[in-house]
Amino acid sequence: MQPGKIQKLQISRFSDNGAYLKDSFEEEVLLPNKFVSQDLKIGDFIEVFLYTDSLDRPVATTQKPYGVVDEILTLKIISIEEKGCFLDIGIDKDIFMPTKAPKRFKIGEFVAVRITLDKQGRLIARLGIKEHLKPYKFNIPYVKVEILPFEKTPLGIGCVVNEEYYGLLYKNQIFSPVQIGEKNIAYISKIRSDGKVDLSLKPIGDKSEDKIRLLKIIAEHKILELDFDSPPEEIQKTCQMSKKSFKTLISILLKESKIKILDSSKHAGKKAVHIA
């Protein structure tokens, strides 16, 4: 019986400590009394999760863990020890995450790990999940995906995509809070040659929310002292978007007659954006 998996086992006998469950090879594992309901009887099958107790003995529980062996997920740090951290995996016994630098973590922080087994067959959480993420194998962009944000980088937020692939949300594409460890929905905007993907929080081509947000910014400024030639840094600082997105949205709003561009009264030779 391998710890770290959810499986259906058959009750073979009862003892003072609980019910013993067996697999097809007649191996037995204890389900402690606290998880044994009165209606269970010998021969019944029950779905359990297997792990090892403090004495490294296999044990079963009916509690549902947040993840199983080979899954990548984020777990909350419960305590910090000399050689690593203990994480809440959703059952009575926390899972250990070894690290050479435990002091860089904080209690209550979420950390991305891969659930696996150590050399002794004990359930363990490992850092360094990137090496286990696969290149995106489809050549179809703009599809809807599930993401698990797990790291902040100089470029943005790194995410696990559909539990298998690596994707990046760029800083200038994040217009609402994104929490590390909280799953979300995103859309693939680009597939890179190395199999990594660029992500968008909005459906590709849907500019409705961006238009509303930019119109609000223009209205708040009354006169927005930016134009197509403005430096990307100024556009990013004022509008929280890339220069490319800014130019696209300005063009759309001009066609819709919602704004107008006039000569700037503050900067000679420059243009400014007004509400039409």
TrEMBL record:
PANTHER family: CONSERVED VIRULENCE FACTOR B (PTHR37296:SF1). One of its GO terms (molecular function) is nucleic acid binding. The lineage of its organism: Bacteria, Pseudomonadati, Campylobacterota, Epsilonproteobacteria, Campylobacterales. InterPro entries: CvfB_fam, CvfB_S1_st, CvfB_WH, NA-bd_OB-fold, S1_domain, WH-like_DNA-bd_sf. This is S1-like domain-containing RNA-binding protein. Belongs to the CvfB family. Transmembrane segments: none annotated. Residues 2-63, 68-130 form the S1 motif domain. It comes from Helicobacter cappadocius.
